[in-house]
Amino acid sequence: LVDIFVRVFHFIQSGQIVLATVHTSYGCCSFQIGLDRSFELCKICYEKNLNIIQADCLFIPVADCRFDAIICIAVIHHFADEERRFRALCELVRVVKPGGKVLVYVWAFEQLKEHQPSVYLQSIMAKKHDSVQSFNESSPSTSQMLSDMQPSSLPVFSKMNSFEQQDFLLPWKSSCAYASHSSRSVLRYYHVYKENELETACALIRGCTIYDRFYEQGNWAVVLQKNAC
């Protein structure tokens, strides 16, 4: 992962943060807390004695200005409308301390940037992952799922080599050994961001500035810094 998300590694190093979703300190005690909505994923963390909160980033159950830094990867693009995506960004800024930073990654519409395919595209073209089969509309599990689902106005994405529009459903099957019903495909909503779209939304958030923005491996990313109170 360090080879893929180089900027995440640098962000962690610059803040002396151990790999985690968020990092906070009270007095002389520093620790990391993960945040996930999935009970099963939280259970895995609990079994490994990791600090975890079961919640989503529309409502983080902590007081204002508690975290030194926050890392949010591959989350915002799953919220199904612009208002929710904006609310989630505002909530991340709310809980970080003045001067603290928030690193956000979202999936990019532009998977081919400067003639270089993202790692995601490379993996699909090379067909290295078994999970690719679950993305195929002709696969048995996905075909059954599509026949059972209610009519939707969103397209089910299956080409896997380019994005034709920004909002779609993607057949997905968990590769996690702990996941329940691991053989079952589900449809996940995605909103892929075009260049400058994420920064435009972040510029509307009160009390923070865009510290950095960049493209990395098929993702648009921003680093937000909370202003002093």
Automatic annotation (TrEMBL):
<dbReference type="GO" id="GO:0000049">
    <property type="term" value="F:tRNA binding"/>
</dbReference>
<keyword id="KW-0489">Methyltransferase</keyword>
<dbReference type="GO" id="GO:0005634">
    <property type="term" value="C:nucleus"/>
</dbReference>
<keyword id="KW-0808">Transferase</keyword>
<dbReference type="GO" id="GO:0106335">
    <property type="term" value="F:tRNA (5-carboxymethyluridine(34)-5-O)-methyltransferase activity"/>
</dbReference>
<dbReference type="InterPro" id="IPR051422">
    <property type="entry name" value="AlkB_tRNA_MeTrf/Diox"/>
</dbReference>
<dbReference type="GO" id="GO:0005737">
    <property type="term" value="C:cytoplasm"/>
</dbReference>
<protein>
    <submittedName>
        <fullName>Methyltransf_11 domain-containing protein</fullName>
    </submittedName>
</protein>
<feature type="domain" description="Methyltransferase type 11">
    <location>
        <begin position="32"/>
        <end position="103"/>
    </location>
</feature>
<dbReference type="GO" id="GO:0002098">
    <property type="term" value="P:tRNA wobble uridine modification"/>
</dbReference>
<dbReference type="InterPro" id="IPR029063">
    <property type="entry name" value="SAM-dependent_MTases_sf"/>
</dbReference>
<dbReference type="GO" id="GO:0030488">
    <property type="term" value="P:tRNA methylation"/>
</dbReference>
<dbReference type="InterPro" id="IPR013216">
    <property type="entry name" value="Methyltransf_11"/>
</dbReference>
<dbReference type="GO" id="GO:0008757">
    <property type="term" value="F:S-adenosylmethionine-dependent methyltransferase activity"/>
</dbReference>
<dbReference type="Pfam" id="PF08241">
    <property type="entry name" value="Methyltransf_11"/>
</dbReference>
